[in-house]
């Protein structure tokens, strides 16, 4: 599951942030997201979560969303992977 | 010919008000036109350029297109807070009559304001609940950054009583009460065009307005081919 989730999540970030080819693939666990990418404002985060829900088949509660979850690519991948294995 | 034109938009209480529309009418095109119902709110901004790019391509194939403003959005002089989804549908029916629309193309949430009885296409329609949820979530996240705690349920409950500001759009109580329950109406003469057919991610996903010539080509081609087939059928 991990590989599939990783790939899907990178594709979502690419689509939602309008990244250039290869850019999302180069993300590491330490690549900063919220607060590091100027595109990622509250509206963009809302769009990102909606896409994650639709494409990964999970529900993200508003309470789950905080600075830690969105701090870097690794923390977002961890959160999504946990949710997917729980469903 | 490309022009901003005015049209008499029907008001819910009777009478009309002049609203704007962007019209592309190629020389020698028949009077009938394709009515385009724009995407809503923030998506409307992000998709405006894409929408007009599709219109340019259609006009280049000899198809006249008109893109009216929804009351309360874009250049409209009417207050958004006073609008309901039903008012939008009546407005788009007025536009369809005024511009003698033979077909329509709705963009995303524009499907929820589609005029009744006009054949055509819903491009990537979105349910009211889905669009509302995303706007609520954006508001909740922005509030949290500012140190305030809000929930979807409490916002909606208050919104149904007093209206609600979402993503910078001031929506009235009636709008909030109705919008979340809306889905694109099933009509035999209206087909859905999904994003899969356009060869790339939807431009409404981007944080800023963007453009994609390939996607505009693809959407315009789907419409132009279908219209040509209907003419010869």
List key phrases describing it.
heterodimer; A: 87 residues; mainly alpha; Non-ribosomal Peptide Synthetase Peptidyl Carrier Protein, Chain A; 3 helices; 0% strand; B: 233 residues; alpha/beta; Rossmann fold; 2 domains; two-stranded antiparallel ribbon; 6 helices; 9 strands; 21% strand; globular
Outline of the structure:
The complex is a heterodimer of chains A (87) and B (233). Chain A has helices at 2-17, 42-56, 73-86.
Description:
The complex is a heterodimer of chains A (87) and B (233). Chain A has 87 residues and is mostly helical. In chain A, 52% of the residues lie in helices and 0% in strands. Chain A has one domain (2-86): Orthogonal Bundle (Non-ribosomal Peptide Synthetase Peptidyl Carrier Protein, Chain A). Chain A contains 3 helices and no strands. In chain A, helix 1 runs antiparallel to helix 2 (42-56) and helix 1 (2-17) packs across helix 3 (73-86). The model of chain B has no long low-confidence stretch (mean pLDDT 95). Chain B is globular, with a radius of gyration of 18 Å. Chain B has helices spanning 41-60, 85-98, 128-145, 152-162, 173-179, 213-232, and strands at 2-10, 16-24, 33-37, 65-68, 101-107, 120-123, 164-166, 169-171, 190-193. In chain B, 39% of the residues lie in helices and 21% in strands. At the A-B interface, helix 1 and helix 2 of A face helix 3 of B.
Number of domains of chain A: 1
- Across the major sheet of chain B, the strand order is 1-2-4-3-5-6-9
**Uncertain residue segments of chain B:** none
Give the count of helical stretches of chain A: 3
Beta-strand residue percentage of chain B:
15-25%
Q: Whole-Å distance between the termini of chain A?
A: 12 Å
Q: How many strand elements of chain A?
A: 0
Q: What is the residue-averaged pLDDT of chain B?
A: 95
How would you sum up the major sheet of chain A? none
CATH topology of chain A: Non-ribosomal Peptide Synthetase Peptidyl Carrier Protein, Chain A
- Strand fraction of chain A equals under 5%
Q: Please name the CATH architecture of chain A.
A: Orthogonal Bundle
Helix share bin of chain B: 25-40%
Q: For this structure, what is the CATH class of the largest domain in chain B?
A: Alpha Beta
* CATH uppermost class of chain A: Mainly Alpha
Round the Cα radius of gyration of chain A to an integer and report it.
12 Å
Q: Give unreliable regions of chain A as ranges.
A: none
Largest Cβ-defined interface: A-B, 20 and 24 residues
């Amino acid at each position: 599951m991990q590989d599939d989730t990783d790939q899907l999540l990178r594709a979502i970030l690419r689509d939602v942030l309008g990244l250039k080819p290869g850019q999302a693939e180069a993300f590491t666990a330490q690549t900063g997201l919220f607060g590091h990418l100027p595109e990622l404002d509250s509206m963009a985060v809302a769009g990102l979560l909606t896409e994650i829900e639709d494409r990964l088949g999970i529900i993200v509660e508003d309470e789950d969303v905080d600075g830690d979850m969105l701090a870097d690519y690794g923390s977002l991948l961890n959160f999504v992977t946990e949710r997917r294995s729980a469903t | 010919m490309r022009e901003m034109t005015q049209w008499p938009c029907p008001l819910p209480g009777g009478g009309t008000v002049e609203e704007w529309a962007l019209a592309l009418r190629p020389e020698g095109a028949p009077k009938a036109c394709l009515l385009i119902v724009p995407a809503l709110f923030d998506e409307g901004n992000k998709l405006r350029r894409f929408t007009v790019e599709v219109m340019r391509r259609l006009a280049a194939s000899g198809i006249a297109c008109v893109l009216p403003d929804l009351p309360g959005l874009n250049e409209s002089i009417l207050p958004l807070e006073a609008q309901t989804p039903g008012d939008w549908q009546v407005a788009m029916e007025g536009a369809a009559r005024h511009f003698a629309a033979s077909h329509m193309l709705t963009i995303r949430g524009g499907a929820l304001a589609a005029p009744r009885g006009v054949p055509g296409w819903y491009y990537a329609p979105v349910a009211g609940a889905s669009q509302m949820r995303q706007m609520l979530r954006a508001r909740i996240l922005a509030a949290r950054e500012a140190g305030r705690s809000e929930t979807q349920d409490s916002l909606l409950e208050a919104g149904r009583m007093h209206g609600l500001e979402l993503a910078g759009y001031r929506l009235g109580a009636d709008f909030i009460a109705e919008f979340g329950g809306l889905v694109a109406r099933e009509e035999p003469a209206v087909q859905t065009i999904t994003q899969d057919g356009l060869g790339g991610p939807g431009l409404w996903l981007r944080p800023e307005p963007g453009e994609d010539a390939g996607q505009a080509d693809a959407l315009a081609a789907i419409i132009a081919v279908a219209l040509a087939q209907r003419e010869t059928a």
